[in-house]
Specification:
With 142 residues, this protein is mainly alpha-helical. The protein is built from six helices and two strands.
């Protein structure tokens, strides 16, 4: 599994909104400038964040985007799944066994299923608030 630019940028946008907004709307061009991400790329990311209910946007003078919840109420897993889709290490761990004909008797499937749980549990245990701390000490995997 590799997190794409879209997922990484979505995280940066969400952290930027958390650090800057204070409840006010932040223009996309300001986020783009601070994060050094092209405005066109941010324009492609924001609709999915709005549709997913993570942010709200207002157009026009004084418009922009802001978070719908407090930074500690957003998990990194939630944001990445919205931006990336599923975060599975291999297709066969998807509900229903995925496309693999061997899933019922595959000796490696338990490894991938456990890795999937570890990845998702870890990412769901880290919040935007965690990443906002100066020397972010994110939770360690047990």
């Amino acid at each position: 599994m590799m997190i794409s630019t879209r997922g990484r940028y979505a995280l940066r946008v969400m952290i930027d909104l958390a650090e800057q907004s204070g409840g006010r709307y932040i223009p996309m061009k300001d986020i783009a400038a601070r994060q050094e991400i092209s405005l066109k790329y941010i324009e492609r990311i924001m609709p999915s964040l709005v549709k997913g209910g993570l942010v709200e946007g207002v157009q026009g003078k004084g418009g922009g985007y802001r978070l719908n919840r407090a930074p500690e109420d957003y998990s990194i897993g939630e944001i990445l799944r919205l931006a990336e889709g599923k975060l599975m290490p291999v297709a066969c761990v998807e509900c229903g066994g995925g496309p693999c004909d061997r899933s019922g008797h595959c000796r490696t499937r338990p490894v991938w299923a456990k890795l999937d749980r570890i990845i998702n549990d870890y990412l769901d245990g880290v919040t935007i608030a965690d990443l906002m701390q100066e020397e972010a000490e994110v939770p360690h995997v047990q």
